[in-house]
Amino acid sequence: MDKLPWVGVSVKRKEDERLLRGAGRFLDDLDDTVALHAAIGRCPYPHARIRGIDPGGALEMAGVEAVLLGRDVVARTEPTNVLRPFPGAATTAYYAMAHPVARYEGEPVVAVAARDRYEAEDALERIAIDWEPLPHVVDAEEALRSGSPLLFDQVPSNLLAASTVKAGDPDAAFRQAAAVVKGKLRINRVTGLPIETRGLLARYSDQTRTLEVWSSTQTPHLVRAQLAHVLRMAESDIRVIAPDVGGGFGIKMCVYPEDVVVCLLAIDIGRPVKWVEDRVEHFRGCTHAREAVHELELAGSADGTLTALRDRYVIDAGAYNSPFGPPMLTNLMLPGPYRLRDGEIERRVALTNKVPVGPYRGYGQPESNFVREVLLDRLARKLGQDPADLRRKNLLRPDELPFQNLTGATYDSGDYVRCLDLALSRVGYDEVRAGQAAWRREHRYVGVGVSCYAEFTGYPSSAFLGRTGAGFGAYESVTIRMDRAGRAAIYTGVSTFGQGMETTFAQVCASSLGLEPADITIYGGDSRGTPYSVGGFASRTMIAGAGAIATATGEIRAKMLRLAGHLLGVAPEHLEVAAGVVRRTDDPSVQLSIREVSEAAFLGHRLPPGDDPGLEATAYHDPPASAFGYGSVAARVEVDPRSGAFDLQRYVLVHDCGTQVNPMIVEGQIHGGIAQGLAAALFEELQYDRDTGQLVNGTLVDYFAPSAADLPRFELDHLETPAPATSLGVKGVGEGGTIGAAAAVANAIGDALAPFGVELDRLPITAESVWRALEAARSRPAAAVN
Amino acid sequence: MSSRHRIRVTVNGRAYERDVQGRRLLVDFLRHDLGLYGTHVGCEQGVCGACTVLLDGQVVKSCLMLAPQADGRTLTTVEGLAGRGELHPVQEAFREAHGLQCGYCTPGFLLSAVALADRGVVLEGKSLRAELAGNLCRCTGYQNIVEAVERYLRQTVGSRRG
Ligand code: FES
Ligand code: FES
Fold first, then answer.
1. Is A467 exposed, middle or buried (0-12, 13-18, 19+ CB in 10 A)?
2. How far apart are CA B146 and CA B128, in angstroms?
3. Tell me, what's the pLDDT at B2?
4. How far is CA A740 from CA A4, A6, A455, A691, B18, in A?
5. Sheet-wide strand order for A715-719
6. Can the peptide bond before residue B107 be classed as cis, meaning omega within 30 degrees of 0?
7. How many domains does chain B have?
8. First-to-last C-alpha distance (Å) of chain B
9. Within a 10 A sphere around the Cβ of A451, how many other Cβ atoms?
10. Could you give the CA distance from residue A739 to residue A649 in angstroms, rounded to a whole number?
11. Model confidence over B30-60: pLDDT tens digits?
12. Helix axes B106-119, B89-96, angle to 10 degrees
């Protein structure tokens, strides 16, 4: 079927009705009356040895059923396996509880199961632990210096992994450059902060020796695989079910230490055990993200051609290599959407006594975008060019695509220049330029900044992931079953965490089967009864999922045609599926309803020779390549140079995510991405105290997640260049909004304050950091001002 | 450990009488004692607003109150907006404007919006955003929430006036 009636339509979401009524079922809504409740005791130091632990006081308390200690966990389990390893990375045995050495504040060291959470927390207070604090380090660059406290005996100098990529001849390019700009840029440690924290409900059956786990996760199948590995169980003895999930953003992927602890308690006691992370635990239990220090250089020729890039950066990985570990896409996307062939990038990943980092929406792309785009503005200034002109000159043109960038990514399609130009005209770039001088005479500092990105979405095939040593594939899968009433059910391992999958999957399926989205029911997130699934992350669900739906519905459709043909006495090739019926192409009055065809498949009374009863298919889809989205952000600010306070007046994003299955949902994804991009750029930072090694702002009172009052209205526009390689031409859209935010605002502020020669070099950008940058510029020799 | 109290509350028009510990949070009482799971928990510190309910018509964060403090009072939770009938206009507005993604923050926003309508002012843009600052959403970027509430206030307050 070439016409897909429900693709490209802003269908209202199937998920909404239950969620609006308060009838969604999230993890903590699963109340099992016989369940016990776990509370987890955590290390109060950044680095410490447990000399002794005495749980006696807790075990005596009424209502306490069990206490679990680190030494039991280490004896009974495997360390969590790394699913996305860095080549050559050292091993950091990451057990679910620390024993005998804990390596970050918040690392689980003991757990209690009791009648309710209140009692379990009371019991934790009665457990006496004799701690021997050890020297710690919470700064990545410091951690790599010799003489720094070591986290693991077997990892020399806290270097988890290091690698260098080089393409072309960057040294020559730098020698010949008309201008070189350098910067040391710091990216803040933040976290995704879903409003629902993580949680788990585990039930173990002594009779069947099977474990049933309800988990607030984006990846039920990967959680099952990891639990099987860590608990030394067969995968077939574990069932993992994700109920409604209250936001993920990459944070709710794979197995966390607490998950293993809760399963062990459930196994030991033989009763269900539930644990729901509180928000203070969340800041210490869930992975952090993004922290890095880059030393970047760009080279340009006098006409504004970008000629080479050199970067040397350190990622702060925290204390362990978490299952998905530090971000992988920084290198890949560092060259950006530009015609750039020469470069050298050295990446070092450092261990520190902090919460381990993991994936967060963007996975390295916001980081590389910030450092590159901020330096591009400096290059433009140094060459005396307009930053938008410099970008336009270097952006790849449609006839240059596909283009393999210097770190190996192949950009597939699009019109990057047009995208930039749309953003510029929308934000009123020329008007700001024209008005700036006059405003400055009135002491008004208005600026406009842009940032351009290309975005890696989905994975380029399972084989690619295999070559990188990943513990999963790139595919997604579905089972689709028609019932006798002519409705379809989709069984998928992907869970529902806000991305609108139930609606978009239904749209693709309905389009292919001649049904309406309302005729489709989605059963998602249960490892039992769904084919192997990878899960919802890396902006890949629609890319891989749409392919699987297309294949499965294709099979079902072909069978419907055979069945209807048999019943009508018409050759199947003269039939088509359309809006609820199977009919003759040349005489639509000869038809059967899909309901009648489904009924016939169910009864099996009159089947064509060789066909079995039922209308059902299972399909896997492995995308043949990644799809590259792209976009341009343009921001307008006004800054008060006395205080550093700034007003983000306009925020424009023009993007291209290929075919849009549901434009309303796409727009929602972009909005959410921008908000998280701006949150990390302007508000949030997880701060560790150097001397005590403590996370000093790990509560929602102290960590400034923006509210509606803190963010501007976003203005969106889009282009639609179907991806050549993916099913339907979709490109991923979940992460794009985050990428360009920080650089666009930084560049706008830099532009507004150009007369002062201000250079912003750290995130988040706050009134204070702008004020400090102004102070630094004022104390620099006047040469900085052009 | 903690004293016990007998409390009587009316929630969504229905009267309940229960024994609770003195330290039981109102939100835990609503969720785990009465089974009204639509009220959510995101921080237990009064910041996120996921636990927002109406207490005698006023917006409160039910994680910041103890259950015994609600004795003798009347509460509305998200389950009370539409009952089993058609969606309430505020819910309809959120659906139309795509004002929710994961839906975890949504009940709190719905009740905050209802309380705004009860004040009888039509707010929009920045002034509305300021009023919604007591509820955090991590999925939507707020834009469609603001649009949904604007739509709802225009309809509800506008028509009451007209
Ligand atoms: S749970 Fe009450 S405000 Fe967050
Ligand atoms: S919709 Fe997910 S937090 Fe608001």
1. exposed
2. 7
3. 67
4. 33, 31, 10, 34, 53
5. A445-457, A627-639, A646-656, A715-719
6. no
7. 2
8. 56
9. 32
10. 19
11. 999 999 999 999 999 999 999 999 999 999 9
12. 120
Q: What is the pLDDT of residues A218-255, one digit of tens each?
A: 999 999 999 999 999 999 999 999 999 999 999 999 89
B61 lines ligand 1 (CB under 6 A): yes
B100 lines ligand 2 (CB under 6 A): yes
> Measured between alpha carbons, how far is A18 from A566 in angstroms, rounded to an integer?
41
pLDDT of A264 over the 70 cut: yes
CA nearest to B89 within chain A: A20
Cα distance from B104 to chain A (closest Cα, Å)? 5
Q: Is the dihedral of CA B100, B105, B111, B115 positive or negative?
A: negative
Per-residue pLDDT reduced to its tens digit, A6-58: 999 999 999 999 999 999 999 999 988 899 999 999 999 999 999 999 998 99
Which residues in chain A have Cβ-Cβ distances shorter than 8 Å to B1?
A: 122
Among residues A129, A347, A102, A361, the alpha carbon closest in space to that of A249 is found at A361
Closest ligand by atom to B143 CA:
2
Contact flag B42-A705 (C-beta cutoff 8 Å): no
Q: Which of B80, B113, B128 is the last residue in one of the domains?
A: B80
Q: Any CB–CB contact under 8 A between B110 and chain A? A: yes
Q: pLDDT tens digits for A573-626?
A: 999 999 999 999 999 999 999 999 999 999 999 999 999 999 999 999 998 888
Tens digit of pLDDT for each residue in A351-405?
999 999 999 999 999 999 999 999 999 999 999 999 999 999 999 999 999 999 9
Atom 3 of ligand 2 has which residue's CA nearest to it?
B137
Nearest CB to B142; choose among A194, A675, A700: A675
Q: Which CATH architecture has domain A31-134+194-248+252-285?
A: Alpha-Beta Complex (3.90)
Structure tokens at A280: 């203070």
> What CATH architecture does domain A292-461+624-784 belong to?
2-Layer Sandwich (3.30)
C-alpha span between A364 and A84 (Å, rounded):
14
pLDDT, average across residues B14-24: 97
Where in chain A are the domains?
A: 16-22+475-621, 31-134+194-248+252-285, 292-461+624-784
Q: How far is the C-alpha of A368 from the C-alpha of A724, rounded, in Å? A: 26
Contact B105 A118 (CB under 8 A): no
At A679, list the tokens.
């949150």
Beta-strand relationship, A238-241 and A210-215? parallel
Question: H-helix or E-strand containing B151?
Answer: helix B143-161
Put simply, the chain B residues between 22 and 61 with a CB less than 8 A from any chain A CB are 23-24, 31-32, 35-45, 47-48, 50
Q: What is the ipTM of this complex?
A: 0.98
Q: Provide mean pLDDT across the span A756-774.
A: 97
